Amino acid sequence: MKKSNIVSAGLALFAMLFGAGNVFLPLALGRDSGLGIWYALTGFVLTAVLVPLLGIISAALYKGDYKKFLGTIGVVPGFLVALVCMVLLGPFGCTPRCLSVAYGAVEWYFPQISLLVFSIVAGVILFALTVRQSSLISILGRYLAPVKLLLLSAVILLGLIFPGHGYVTSMPNGAAFFRGFLDGYGTLDLIASIFFAGLICASLRNGADDDYTLAKRSAQAGAIGGLLLGLMYAGFCLVAHLYADQLQGLDKAVLLSAVASIILGAKGGILANITVALTCLTTAIALTVVFAEER
Fold it and tell me: d(Cα 282, Cα 295) in Å, to the nearest integer?
């Protein structure tokens, strides 16, 4: 298998995992942690990067079959855990959160658009992009993920080059670490990684003669995705830290739009709308596919 396929799978994993919570949680963490930012970021990376990576590798050892993986705790407990996780990832958790955060970004510039109309349009787009599941990883890894990464990086780099006035509050180091540790779990990426492992393994199975090779490729793709996640989290935390005084009192859902508007200006801030929409769209696509396949 070509290394480009593993890189593409890693990019796709990053695109699938980096959704709504991955946008506003590190931004809110950077805004609120003050001098404890590095402790907060350390706790966040532990549970939002390393733990999901373990989830990918663990599920890959079962060829991405989450039923067999969760079934190791027993048939009934495994079924109940899978059911709860699927509900959280599907209609009662991550997917609505992706749409609500995307709407919050769009509403920042287009308040005349109602949530109902936005949800209908988003639903149609999701259907169009998920109806052909066989090409999902290719679409995410080769097209959507690079664009998403470029847009997010642009906001972060410009924010670091032209910093704001800095923090206005601060947390004790221990409290900052604990806040970051808990917020990392709040991304729900551990749960998502177990279910997304099936999509990753399916894209890497070609030419894999044994389970070890498949698990190794999945781990490599997971490492690429995890590295990108960690870099994005660090960038968002630092940017929000540098512009903390201008982000006070804002709802978490509009933090990226606010940061981009401050850094890029009113017109350039439209970039944030595109970024948030693309960020939430790629995650919602993967969640929809997983939920639809195993409903």
Answer: 20
pLDDT higher than threshold 90 for residue 182? yes
Task: Encode burial over 27-55: b for 16+ CB neighbours within 10 A, e otherwise.
Answer: bbbbbbbbebbbbbbebbbebbbebbbeb
Instruction: Enter the tokens of residue 30.
Output: 């950077």
From the DSSP assignment, how many helices (H) and strands (E) are in the chain? 15, 0
**Residue entry with tokens 């960038």:** 235
The residue among 205, 200, 207, 202 whose CA lies nearest residue 222 is 200
Cβ atoms of 288 and 89 closer than 8 Å:
no
Q: What structural domains and CATH numbers belong to the chain?
A: 3-293 (1.20.1740.10)
Q: Are the C-beta atoms of residues 282 and 15 closer than 8 Å to each other?
A: yes
pTM: 0.81
Sign of CA dihedral 156, 161, 164, 165: positive
Alpha carbons 222 and 228: distance in angstroms, whole number: 10
* Alpha-carbon gap, residue 91 to 235, rounded angstroms: 30
Mean pLDDT of 43-56: 93
**pLDDT score, position 49:** 94
Mean pLDDT of 257-261: 80
Q: State yes or no: pLDDT of 133 exceeds 60.
A: no
Q: Is 269 helix (H, G, I), strand (E, B) or coil?
A: coil
Distance CA(63)–CA(75), nearest Å, equals: 18
The 10 Å Cβ neighbour count of residue 13 is 34
